Model the fold of this input.
Amino acid sequence: MLKLSAYSKYLSLICFLVILASCFMSWAYYADINETFNGFYSYNNVYGKPAKLLLSFSGFVAIAAFIKKLIFKRSALLIGGLNVAYAVKNFLLFGSCYRGYCPEKHVGLYLMLVASIVMFVTTFFQEGKTSQE
Done:
């Protein structure tokens, strides 16, 4: 039987690397201004740079997966949940229609969302100490 807790830390590391790669990939193409947005670039910085916060949150969750202290496991649950909420917010922001125009969503946007959700799910199956010593 496959024990997910044995592989959860490696899966969270892989998810971090996927989020890192997706932040440099194209998220959406806006034909009305002829621009392609990614996690670090939006036209005139309209949507900010969401990759900075996504990478810091997912980096913390990936590092916390390798530390066997209870406080890091609980913190990873909180930060992972915030990461998913921020990923959903960015997915809706970059992919939503405005003034009758709908941008073309690219694969980087979907990868960022799915990897954030999978990383959050791995926080439930992390191995470590179950009681504070």
Notes: The chain has one domain: 7-43+59-125. The first strand starts at residue 26 and ends at 30.
